[in-house]
Inverse folding.
């Protein structure tokens, strides 16, 4: 293995590598020796089995590294990254007060200019080429986050957090907050949504029903739909949170209905967690086309619950994966897949799920094409196929070996390799990440 491989910094280029990708038509494609051609516009122009002399001219032979589609993280919080892994054993609302609101309160422009670039480098190191993230309440620091994403090269959907109660903005007259927050969000959306041919996108971001009045939820959903932007919030994460929502919205049928009444449940809605749903809620989410960002490592860290993934999949809910850093302690989605698999195993072992376990390829799909479909970007990203934009990662599976110097990283087939990438994920196994063929700083 040569870690000094000089990876191509920008398109066009052709890479020779092993290839492992989900396919839009279903299933997975594995090639032990493939040529992947990226054209000058950063699109995938060729994906061929390497055929000796007749293959495309390689600029770089990366074998035995594996080329894969970039990962899509549907849920993260940029200001929270410094506290990742801190506060184990606390419930959601206590953890927010103690470890999160102080960070977000202090998320001014200089702080954002320090944290956001470091966060995007961390996502790139983790293999995440698309991230959907919350900022803090402050519009200036959200603007700094977008500038950092623009400069870094990552594909990002970001939004300024909106809250008109249970907020850390205690200086302001609450009656002004809704109008101000809406105006700030709309201005940020006008500036950033669709920037760089859609690489940067905006999400109106009411934090959750505990922090938002019905008027705030309604106004943000309307603004998102008028602007063609995403709308992101949290749903049904923690039992105490659910009780609080019931108290705050006594007329709503359930938590999901709070967002439904606000006009929020559309195919552009990204709802994090959604753990404790009734059958009615599951049915309504599937019908609405709203997306669930499944965040199993976060759900285990805060002991929020175990999402019944199989039940939601059977109902047809659109889903992808989220790290939810910092309630999730790790940015890498490979670790999130592992937490998700363990959660489903625990549900089966406890007799709470009769569904067959997801295969490693199923988890990869959730973290790539599933996320792309959730964002409506399946024509652009999510798999290594001709015509798509070259959002790619290259992974060194040798570092996942149990014993140094024993065995080979290509023992078995792609299923075995992918199983190790998930269950023995190594912090430095992602050796490079590209968006549209541009190498991301990591
Ligand atoms: Zn979250």
């Amino acid at each position: 293995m040569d870690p000094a491989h000089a990876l191509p910094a920008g398109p066009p280029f052709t890479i020779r590598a092993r290839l492992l990708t989900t396919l839009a038509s279903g299933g997975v494609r594995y090639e032990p020796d493939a040529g992947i051609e990226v054209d000058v516009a950063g699109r995938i122009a060729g994906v061929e089995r390497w055929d000796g002399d007749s293959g495309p001219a390689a600029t770089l032979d990366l074998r035995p590294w594996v080329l894969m589609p970039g990962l899509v993280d549907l849920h993260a919080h940029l200001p929270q990254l410094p506290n990742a892994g801190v506060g184990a054993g606390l419930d959601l609302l206590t953890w927010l007060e103690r470890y999160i609101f102080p960070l977000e309160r202090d998320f001014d422009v200089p702080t954002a200019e320090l944290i956001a670039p470091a966060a995007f480098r961390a996502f790139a190191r983790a293999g995440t080429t698309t991230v959907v993230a919350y900022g803090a309440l402050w519009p200036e620091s959200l603007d700094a986050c977008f500038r950092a994403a623009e400069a870094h090269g990552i594909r990002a959907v970001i939004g300024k957090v909106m809250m008109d109660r249970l907020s850390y903005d205690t200086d302001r007259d609450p009656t002004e907050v809704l109008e101000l927050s809406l105006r700030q969000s709309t201005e940020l959306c006008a500036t950033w949504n669709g920037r760089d041919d859609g690489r940067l996108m905006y999400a109106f971001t009411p934090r959750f029903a505990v922090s938002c009045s019905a008027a705030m939820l309604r106004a943000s959903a309307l603004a998102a739909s008028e602007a063609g932007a995403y709308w992101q919030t949290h749903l049904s994460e923690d039992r105490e949170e659910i009780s609080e929502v019931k108290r705050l919205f006594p007329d709503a049928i359930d938590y999901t209905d709070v967002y439904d009444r606000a006009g929020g449940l559309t195919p552009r809605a990204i709802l994090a967690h959604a753990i404790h749903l009734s059958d009615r809620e599951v049915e309504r989410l599937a019908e609405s086309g709203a997306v669930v960002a499944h965040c199993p490592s976060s759900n285990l860290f805060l002991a929020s619950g175990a999402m019944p993934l199989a039940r939601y999949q059977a109902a047809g809910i659109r889903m992808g994966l989220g790290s939810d850093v910092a309630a999730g302690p790790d940015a890498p989605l490979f670790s999130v897949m592992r937490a998700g698999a363990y959660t489903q195993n625990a549900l089966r072992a406890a007799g709470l799920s009769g569904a067959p376990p997801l295969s490693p390829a199923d988890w990869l799909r959730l973290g790539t094409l599933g996320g792309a479909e959730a964002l409506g970007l399946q024509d652009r990203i999510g798999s290594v196929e001709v015509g798509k934009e070259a959002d790619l990662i290259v992974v060194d599976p040798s570092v996942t070996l149990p014993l140094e110097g024993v065995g080979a990283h290509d023992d078995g087939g792609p299923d075995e390799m992918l199983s190790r990438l998930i269950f023995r994920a190594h912090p430095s196994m992602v050796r490079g990440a590209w968006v549209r063929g541009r190498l991301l700083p990591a």
The pocket of zinc ion is lined by residues 75, 77, 234, 272, 324, 327 (CB under 6 Å). The domain at 72-374 is CATH 3.20.20.140 (TIM Barrel).
